[in-house]
Fold this protein.
Amino acid sequence: MRAVLRRFATGGGIAGTVLFALVVLAALLAAVIAPGDPMAMAGRPLIQPFSDWRFPLGTDRLGRDVLAELLHGARATLIVSGAAALVTLLVGITIGTLAGFIGGRLDDALMRLADAFQSVPTFILALAFVSIAGPSLASVVTAVSLGAWTAPARVLRAEILSLRRREFVDAYRVLGMPPLQIAFREVLPNALPPVITLAAVIVANAILVEAALSFLGLGNPNSVTWGAMIAEGRAVIRSAPYLSAIPGVAVVVTVLAVNLIGDAANEAIHARRVQVP
Amino acid sequence: MTRILAVARRRLLHSIPVVAIVVLGVFALLEAAPGDAVDAYLVIGGGDAEMIQRLRQEWGLDRSFLARLGAYLTALAHLDLGWSVAFARPVSAVLFERLPNTLMMMAAAICFSFSAGTLLGIAAGARPGSLRDRILSLVSLGLYAMPSFWLGLMLLVGFAVKLAWFPLGGIESVGMGKTGLARALDIARHLVLPVLSLGLIYLALYLRLMRTGMIEAWRSDYIRTARAKGLTPRRIAFRHAARNALLPVVTMLGLQAGALLSGSVVVESVFAIPGMGRLAFEAVTQRDVPLLLGVFLISTLMVILANLFVDLLYARLDPRVAAEG
């Protein structure tokens, strides 16, 4: 574990961790730095950034403090993407384990289902789901997970398939342990590492999908989101492009941080040395 | 050739259950949506209770679940995707009118990201760890983290509003009466920014994939052989390493079809391009469920077709792909 950590501590891994820590800090301190309702009017509309010390990042069309919105948006982004990643991993792990360990007809059926979900343009599926179920935190999380569960399911299934003929599985069978218990208690933990490196990809994707959904006005209506801020800035994009630019930079920084962490973790776990010719 | 035909047959058989699942899923979503086709129809025309009753009977909406499913499948078989409330026209007519714009944009984005991405990936992977490789990797990481709609907005601010090099949106200039080559050039000028905002993100993906493939290839025996033969590094990079590194990129092409369709929803909305993606968004804002699911169904079929094509291409490129398995 210590060796893995040492390999993780490359330039990219450290940069990603620091950036991500900043986003988490922003989300945690949102209520301290910017108390009150971030959607409430705070001052004169359309104050340019860096011109008024009370509003370091300026105000939007309705006089809302951009910094406050940005901090509260970090919170919304982390909650939605974290929940979506959790749901995606849970569903993917359950389906992948069942398909891989039980096999046969169930495996065929589940893999055809995965094929179907992988053929669907995921964002249009998310759009359809949210517009039918109505925008809310739960529906956005479900919509993101609907398009993402196939990747962990497939990776886990492949891993389980390579494990299920091992001797320790036979040993538990001889001991009389029920198959599902063997699958989830004994085989699953051994199959998890490659799925965990997938987690970063899932989180990054969830942030981008959530941003796009709220950009189109289908995000969680009860919280400030970066996507909605970008959309809001569109109306004054000629005179105040900073309103759309700032939350976009926040999205890029967060996704970049997650990707950097994922890449470094992947390298550290696989520990493959690149030979330069 | 028979090998490729066999691959085609197997893949076609394989996609039948996939299409069936998607169609069933779309039907389930239609059923789950509040209101039915008659409610939607009445929004335009209006009518009394007796007419509602008659229409429901006529369209089979008062029958059992299975009968409704049967009616839906029969309609689909006749290419009837239902009635669009927002446009007061059949869904299929609206769809096929919008499809060419999206296809044009997607084709341009794929060509751009594939060619530029693989070339830059070869450049980066030719000497891993070099300054050129580091800069390219950094740029691709940044691009890969960008939401396409935001990239589009920023390009719009920079190149259309500030510099005024490109038009602000739309697919062509209205009312200029341009024909032939002039019209084609006009459309191309309108497509530059949307294609860039869609394509740059996938360019980053291809660059990364190609680079990894190249690094992988440098470690293999055939490269050592090529080097032992005394070939120049450039020739080894292009003729030997790049050819094999290209295979995972080709696989990605098929997956990109779906992602591009997803991306076209936001990008077409930003640039006001009357294509299928924007149609999906219009369907959402106007609460037109049959239209939205029509877009969904057609775009899924397009992805399945694109994947079929990519599988065949892959089988053609890699002789190890057998007809079985």
